Amino acid sequence: MEKINILPDQQNEKKWVWIISVLSVVIVLAVAFLLLKSEVNTANASNSWIYILPKFNAFLNSAVALLLLTGLYLVKQKKYDAHRKVMLTAFIFSSCFLISYVIYHFNAPGTKFGDIDHNNIVDVAEKTQAGASRYIYLFLLITHICLASIIVPFCLFTLYRAFNGQFDKHKKIARWTFPIWLYVSVTGVIVYEMISKYYPF
Q1: I want to staple 114 with a disulfide (CB 3.0 to 4.6 A). Which of 81, 130, 175, 192 is the partner?
Q2: CATH 3.40.1000 fits 47-198, yes or no
Q3: Taking the mean position of all CA atoms in its chain, how far away is CA 25?
Q4: Could you tell me the pTM of the whole model?
Q5: Rounded to an integer, what distance in angstroms lies between the CA atom of residue 32 and that of residue 99?
Q6: E-strand spans in 45-95?
Q7: Cβ atoms within 10 A of the Cβ of 100, count?
Q8: Cβ-proximal residues to 155 (8 Å cutoff; 6+ apart), any chain
Q9: What is the pLDDT of residues 84-121, one digit of tens each?
Q10: Structural contact between residues 144 and 191, judged by C-beta atoms closer than 8 angstroms
Q11: Inter-residue contact 184 to 143 (CB < 8 Å)
């Protein structure tokens, strides 16, 4: 059987697909570990600067949402250079958010929606007081987390296609990346606004 030679470009493509795939899995597993762990570093939890991070994260998510909408407008106007700069800025802001999110959840205890007395238990009375807003919050939170877990490879592949000059492939994947990324950013802000009144600080 004749041996098929892989072109250098194909080798490079496979290398980047592998790198992006591994990086995406590592990020998702790290965030899942933080969300599921039951203990925090109590020594660091007393540091007041940690509690600035949720508001900072909400700011980053708001900025990303605005940048995404700006990027969409620019590409529709065929201002591709400006579009590239805006979308790269959005990616940098999202990366900063991820780092800040990991730092916060590594060092601070979790907060449950409706937990007025901050005992980490939402009893019947607290659930009743929270009302339907609790179900809205849980729906937004679950969809936010699920879509946030898949947006990482989408963003990385979208950027890779653009910087590699594969604009047809970039456009195809961007049609999926944009609405998911925008939803994750907007719901991130809404989830923060809903849960912030239950923070113990």
Answers
A1: 130
A2: no
A3: 14
A4: 0.83
A5: 14
A6: none
A7: 17
A8: 91, 94, 177, 181
A9: 999 999 999 999 998 898 888 888 878 888 888 878 88
A10: yes
A11: no
